[in-house]
């Protein structure tokens, strides 16, 4: 069990951190792959339960595991890969005690959660908090309010997420809204996590990637996983330590009498996936926690950090017992050819409660005939319309124009830039703490780039004091795809495309603001552009960055400090922003 301790009761109004150095060595468990059934959502879930505290204890330790046959060092939660499913209702309080018994510091980011009123629980190292040093512990405590849908959590300490610290987080809507907003009925509800998979520790790969003389050559993943599983042929990789004994591809047992909701999450570091299920159409019904009117498609393109729900309906003709699910990495984006690369990972769908005579292994099903996209592009979401209509603001208070690029400057170092800023993270001096320490003067500054507290060449920080509307236009001067993620918010996607953005993009009446798609991660294609808008009403310091792990570590990001006038009471100690973590040895 991953739930070491759990209790239920009324949601607490006080939000605080419990910090305690710990020197107790917990016995190291034998690392294992997570059972398939752990990612099936509770079939009799009480959507209308009173707000409840859901409490977990996670022990972070170093392990060695072979998810696809190749043994590699990993960093795991309670010895199991991937991480445990968190399932809760809107309005619940989550309490997660993290005990770090690994060799390096760590931090958990709750991807897509607003953290309204608990910015210091966002888990973003160098922005909202310091990491949890080895031998120490930290308690994340926050309410999930004002949102529902499919989310996930991952380490936000360097590239550690690709070493195993990832897992799904599902928030159910109350008052019957979940089934009401999902316009296609379904019975079973389950998680499908896609990820690229490396055989070496992220720290080793990152050192190579950021070394002098490399022109943004991101490490190419040799493999991919579905729910942490794959099976490679050991003979193809004779120089690797490999064993496939006891391994199997992911298997999804589905009802042959009803539809199934699959919550697709790309938890990978780099690769975009094209997902399909042989001989099945499916309908997209959710995008990053936003329920949308169903749209039928054959293939789903999903970039890192994005989430989609699809409703899988039964095949129109005779149902076969077994079908292939195929997830292909879009290799056109890769910088070089990796001889170890297997670009496709497969899983099996099995319909049960049908009088099949024999389940033929492997599945005897067929790929869709249409050619596969070779460009790294966001899914065409122009026809996806949110079920709950919200009109985007027609005018904006702040227009931020950004140029995204990779440049080689001093010491032959290739780094990511937004305009002339390459973001540098100081793990022991988070931006939130710096802002609070100088709050009296910072809050009196005019809205805009804060040059008094932060060097914009290394830390581009744009601040606003009151509720305002912010529009961001990013023009990509790089040939790579960049999925940009905004912490603490969902934004309206007002436009995206190839080449230069239209010159009249700011003119009134040009944009369709009636009910644009709302999400927290949108991709900007190579040499393309992206236009987003959001109402900045959530107090805190929020990261805005490319979610390709290698790119954010190379500096492709910035921070928005929004609604600063409400942060005056965050004196840094009584509110529990975790300053004690910053003084411990090993935070780097």
From TrEMBL:
One of its GO terms (molecular function) is copper ion binding. Residues 61-174, 189-351, 425-563 form the Plastocyanin-like domain. InterPro entries: Cu-oxidase-like_N, Cu-oxidase_2nd, Cu-oxidase_C, Cu-oxidase_fam, Cu_oxidase_CS, Cu_oxidase_Cu_BS, Cupredoxin. The keyword Oxidoreductase applies. PROSITE patterns: MULTICOPPER_OXIDASE1 (PS00079), MULTICOPPER_OXIDASE2 (PS00080). CDD domains: CuRO_1_Diphenol_Ox, CuRO_3_MCO_like_4. Keywords: Copper, Metal-binding, Oxidoreductase. Gene3D superfamilies: Cupredoxins - blue copper proteins (2.60.40.420). Belongs to the multicopper oxidase family. This is Multicopper oxidase. It comes from Ophiobolus disseminans. The lineage of its organism: Eukaryota, Fungi, Dikarya, Ascomycota, Pezizomycotina.
């Amino acid at each position: 069990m991953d739930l070491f301790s759990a209790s239920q009761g009324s949601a607490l109004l006080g939000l605080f951190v419990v910090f305690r150095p710990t020197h107790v060595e917990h016995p190291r468990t034998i690392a294992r792959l997570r059972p398939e059934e752990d990612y099936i959502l509770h079939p009799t879930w009480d959507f209308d339960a009173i707000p409840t505290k859901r409490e977990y204890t996670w022990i972070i330790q170093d392990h060695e595991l072979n998810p696809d046959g190749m043994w590699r060092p990993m960093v795991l939660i309670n010895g199991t890969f991937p991480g445990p499913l968190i399932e809760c209702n809107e309005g619940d309080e989550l309490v997660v005690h993290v005990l770090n018994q690994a060799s390096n510091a760590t931090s958990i980011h709750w991807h897509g959660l607003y953290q309204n009123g608990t910015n210091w629980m966002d888990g973003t190292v160098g922005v909202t908090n310091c990491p949890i040093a080895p031998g120490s512990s930290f308690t994340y405590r926050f309410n999930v309010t004002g949102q529902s849908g499919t989310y996930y959590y991952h380490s936000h300490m360097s590239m550690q997420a690709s070493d195993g610290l990832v897992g799904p987080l599902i928030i159910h809507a109350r008052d019957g809204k979940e089934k009401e907003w999902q316009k296609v009925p379904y019975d079973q509800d389950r998680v499908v996590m896609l990820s690229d998979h490396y055989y070496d520790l992220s720290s080793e790969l990152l050192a190579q990637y950021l070394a002098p003389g490399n022109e943004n050559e991101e490490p190419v993943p040799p493999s991919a996983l579905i729910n942490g599983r794959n099976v490679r042929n050991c003979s193809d990789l004779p120089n690797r330590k490999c064993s496939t004994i006891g391994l199997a591809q992911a298997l999804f047992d589905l009802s042959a009498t009803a539809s199934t909701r699959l919550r697709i999450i790309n938890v990978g570091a780099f690769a975009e996936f094209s997902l399909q299920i042989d001989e099945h159409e499916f309908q997209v019904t959710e995008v990053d926690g936003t329920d949308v009117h169903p749209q039928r498609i054959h293939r789903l393109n999903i970039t890192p950090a994005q989430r989609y729900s699809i409703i899988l309906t039964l095949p129109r003709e005779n149902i076969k017992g077994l079908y292939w699910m195929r997830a292909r990495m879009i290799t056109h984006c890769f910088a070089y050819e990796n001889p170890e690369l297997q670009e496709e990972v497969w899983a099996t769908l099995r319909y049960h409660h049908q009088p099949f005579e024999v389940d033929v292994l492997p599945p005897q099903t067929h790929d869709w005939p249409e050619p596969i996209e070779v460009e790294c592009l966001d899914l065409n979401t122009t026809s996806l319309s949110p079920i709950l209509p919200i009109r985007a603001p027609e005018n904006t208070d702040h227009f931020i124009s950004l140029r995204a690029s990779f440049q080689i400057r001093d010491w032959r170092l290739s780094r990511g830039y937004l305009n002339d800023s390459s973001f540098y993270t100081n793990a022991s001096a988070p931006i939130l703490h710096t802002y609070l320490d100088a709050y009296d003067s910072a809050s009196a500054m005019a809205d805009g780039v804060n040059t008094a507290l932060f060097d914009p060449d290394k830390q581009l920080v744009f601040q606003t004091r009151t509720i305002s509307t912010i529009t961001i236009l990013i023009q990509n001067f790089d040939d790579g795809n960049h999925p940009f993620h905004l912490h603490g918010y969902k934004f309206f996607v007002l436009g995206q495309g190839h080449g230069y953005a239209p010159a009249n993009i700011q003119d009134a009446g040009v944009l369709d603001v009636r009910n644009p798609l709302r999400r927290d991660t949108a991709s900007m294609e190579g040499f393309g552009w992206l236009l987003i808008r959001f109402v900045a009403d959530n107090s805190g310091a929020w990261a805005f960055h490319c979610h390709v792990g290698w790119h954010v570590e190379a500096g492709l990001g910035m921070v928005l400090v929004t609604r600063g006038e409400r942060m005056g009471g965050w004196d840094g100690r009584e509110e529990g922003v975790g300053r004690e973590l910053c003084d411990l040895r090993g935070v780097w």
